[in-house]
Write a structure and sequence with these properties.
By secondary structure, the chain is of the alpha+beta class. It has two domains: 317 residues, Thrombin, subunit H (Beta Barrel); 280 residues, no CATH class. The chain has 26 helices and 21 strands. The strands form four sheets. Strands 1, 2, 3, 4, 5, 6, 7, 8, 9 and 10 form a ten-stranded antiparallel beta sheet that branches. The protein has a seven-stranded antiparallel beta sheet with strand order 13-12-18-19-20-17-16. The longest helix has 42 residues. The chain binds arginine (ARG) and glutamic acid (GLU). Arginine binds next to helix 10, helix 13 and strand 19.
């Protein structure tokens, strides 16, 4: 008896998944309750309190939302921020000219005076997170319509925000979690004088470009550095030459110890959006309808832009960030489709739903959930064609900058038509800012070709009921000649910054009359109106029903599937994810190792190539094995992977070891696992990080910016305390 018991305990211990990955993006303030024990089991040596605390300095004080779209971390007591090269790319592009080509050659400030200011860029710290679910849902009942419900919640939350305890310099925001079943409030602090400190050349920071993007094994030094500036009292301030480097509450220590297989890692940052609790019908729609539509449009757009970028150096600079952005999601969706198909995510969902339904049917207390799955299936089916219409419209119209300009001008004219001079003046600032923001990255030649390439998709890819009849007539009148049509639309006044500014400098009535006379503006207004009346309006009710059902279904899953641990979908709020370093089986017969090194960069090196060139200095350092303290056993580590559950927005997030020390910088996921936003699969989902030692090596040995490394707290030998 005793023996049997011992044996079964041994068996259990053996089965205990000590290195199996954990799915989930967890709220830092709930780690203690939900995750701490498990994190320690996986190798964490610090406590949840060291990660997030209200009473003492904690790791969260070193993490920032970088510009609202990426993550950054503080790595020195002089406000130095580390993030990805692709997160700083737009900024790097803005400072780039044909003479000072920072995209191509990199940029290094050799002293504070050389650091470059960036209009509009900000970083945000999270001061505190409060659960405000009770207050938010006060007065909400199941009988309300979606819009009634929303307006009560909006009112409640406005009240909560008004009464929150915070300092004057702090802001407050509230967010829905679990599809509106829970609400949290965030007290934040935002700094707006953020200067570029350093970036490696594109051939390091974006090595392998689109071919290697989303792919392992990887060899990219995807990092750039910024510095936060504050006023002389260390408080947030707009840019001023008077500002001084910010002294942070906390900066990360950097470990030079390196990475071994199975090491505990965690990633702390701002994941953007995931959808883990969808109905099978929604997952299938993404795979077969939405992703393919978006891929088809982007395929055409990318061909056009790439063609210009390869032959014109100034267009290459002008469109660099835009192209990378379009390409990034384009490739990700392809990986997502492959991954959803390959892992048979649909069948997995169906099986999960079967269990759910059986449990609901067997338990009278779940009777309210009885028809949820069937109801959702019906609504998703009804929504399918509208979803396709939405994706085509937004992908096509959103890629043609002529329509972006038209949309801005239309908004201005509308403001005038509603409130005359007052409306016009109020709106003008926004319009000017929007046009200023896009015009430098706009080439009429490229855009015209985009129009010619994409509008045929509008005219033939869309279900007939969604195509504007006015556009069809126009097209027929132009004998289906898209180029001819474009020629009539791209008026000089809509194409250059001086002309647009001259237009907007006119008296309001005159400017509005001109705006209304442009065919491009008229066409945009028609396309938009047609979209609203054929796609948006008729599908609004379905979308409301889906929102309501999906909210119940999310709650129902938590009530019914009690063996599962639930984390809220990503929504650009601060999260912690954890896992272990490890390779994976990519496909039959192929297992990938968990780390790469500089030898691999040299294996990929193609002299003069668009994607795989390697700077001479780096080749020399490699040939001489001149890696300083950053190398390991004669090799220079470059990237590594682990089972942290990350998504877009986690770019730039720190990878931390079990002691909370910085060991890497998150920047991507592996190709086989890009479907993790919808269907995380621990066996193949891995996040990709650049090894911090490579980052330091590039700064110090390659760029000769060792003064920056001196600011940081490096150490060798565990803990570093
Ligand atoms: N795939 C990574 C992310 O989702 C990196 C993108 C930047 N690199 C690029 N070649 N576009 O954002
Ligand atoms: N590169 C992504 C980003 O920009 C992170 C990779 C991912 O999506 O996991 O946030």
């Amino acid at each position: 008896m005793k023996f049997v018991k011992l044996l079964s305990i041994a068996f259990l211990l053996f089965l205990a998944p000590s290195v199996k990955a954990d799915e989930g993006m967890w709220l830092p303030q709930l780690l203690q309750r939900l995750n701490e024990a498990r994190m320690k089991q996986l190798g964490m040596k610090i406590s949840a309190e060291d990660i997030y605390s209200l009473s003492k300095s904690s790791l969260k004080d070193a993490i920032v939302s970088f510009g609202g779209f990426c993550t950054g971390e503080i790595i020195s007591d002089k406000g130095l921020v580390l993030t990805n090269h692709h997160c700083g790319f737009d900024v790097i592009q803005n400072h780039t000219t044909l003479q000072n080509n920072y995209i191509r050659d990199g940029f290094w400030a050799m002293n504070n005076g050389q650091e470059l200011p960036n209009k509009g860029l900000f970083v945000t710290f999270i001061v505190r997170i409060d659960d405000v679910t009770k207050q938010a849902l006060n007065g909400v009942t199941a009988l309300l319509t979606e819009s009634e419900r929303q307006s009560i919640i909006d009112r409640n939350l406005a009240e909560v925000r008004k009464n929150v305890q915070k300092e004057a310099k702090q802001d407050v925001l509230t967010r829905a979690f679990f599809e509106g079943n829970q609400y949290f409030l965030f007290v934040t602090e935002t700094y707006r004088d953020i200067r570029l400190v350093g970036a490696p050349p594109g051939s390091i920071g974006n090595f392998g470009k689109d071919t290697d993007n989303w792919v392992w094994p990887r060899h990219t030094g995807d990092f750039s550095m910024f510095r936060i500036y504050a006023d002389k009292n260390n408080q947030p301030a707009e840019y001023s030459p008077e500002n001084i480097p910010y002294t942070p509450k906390r900066s990360l220590k950097i470990s030079l110890d390196g990475i071994s297989e199975k090491d505990f890692t965690m990633v702390f940052g701002f994941p953007g959006r995931t959808t883990q609790y969808l109905h099978s019908a929604a997952v299938e729609q993404i795979r077969t309808v939405n992703d393919p539509a978006k891929i088809a449009v982007r395929d055409k757009a990318l061909q056009v832009i790439d063609g210009f970028m390869r032959k014109d150096e100034s267009i290459k600079i002008q469109y660099a960030a835009k192209y990378a952005g379009i390409q990034n999601s384009y490739k990700k969706w392809q990986g997502e489709v492959l991954g959803l198909t390959g892992t048979d995510a649909y069948s997995k969902k169906i099986n999960y739903e079967k269990t759910f339904q059986q449990r609901v049917d067997a338990n009278p207390s779940f009777s309210a959930y009885k028809t949820l799955l069937a109801d959702l299936a019906k609504e998703y089916k009804d929504f399918e064609s509208y979803g396709l219409g939405r994706d085509y419209y937004t992908e096509i119209i959103g890629k043609i900058e002529l329509f972006t300009i038209a949309s801005q001008l239309n908004a201005l004219a509308t403001a005038y038509e509603k409130e005359r001079e007052k409306g016009y003046t109020q709106r003008l600032k926004t319009t000017l800012a929007a046009i200023e923001g896009m015009i430098g990255e706009y080439s009429v030649t490229v855009d015209k070709k985009l129009f010619e390439a994409l509008m045929p998709l509008y005219a033939s890819g869309l279900p007939a009921q969604f195509i504007s009849p006015v556009f069809k007539t126009k097209l027929q009148a132009a004998s289906n000649d898209f180029a001819g049509l474009a020629n009539g639309l791209y008026k000089d006044e809509l194409s250059s910054e001086p002309a647009l500014k001259a237009l907007l400098a006119k008296p309001a009535a005159e400017a509005v009359a001109a705006i209304r006379s442009y065919e491009a503006v008229q066409l945009f207004v028609e396309l938009q109106k047609n979209y609203q009346s054929t796609v948006q309006a008729p599908s609004q009710e379905i979308q409301n029903r889906i929102a309501k059902l999906q909210r119940s279904y999310t709650q129902a899953q938590m009530d019914v599937m009690t063996e599962k641990k639930f984390y809220p979908d990503a929504n650009s709020t601060l999260r912690v994810t954890y896992g272990n370093v490890g390779g994976y089986n990519a496909r039959d017969g192929v297992r990938f190792a968990y780390a790469t090194n500089l030898d691999g960069v040299m294996e990929k090196y193609k002299p003069g190539d668009y994607e795989f060139d390697v700077p001479e200095k780096l080749r020399q350092l490699h040939a001489a094995k001149d890696y300083g303290v950053y190398g390991q056993n004669g090799k220079m580590p470059v990237c590594f992977i682990a089972s942290n559950h990350t998504t877009g927005g986690n770019s730039g997030s720190p990878a931390l070891d079990g002691y909370g020390n910085l060991i890497g910088l998150n920047f991507d996921r592996v190709w086989e696992g890009t479907m993790s936003d919808i269907n995380y699969d621990a066996s193949i989902c891995r996040n990709i990080m650049v090894d911090i030692r490579y980052v330091l090596f590039i700064i110090d040995k390659f760029a000769g910016a060792g003064h920056l490394v001196k600011e940081m707290k490096l150490f060798k030998g565990k803990k570093g305390n």
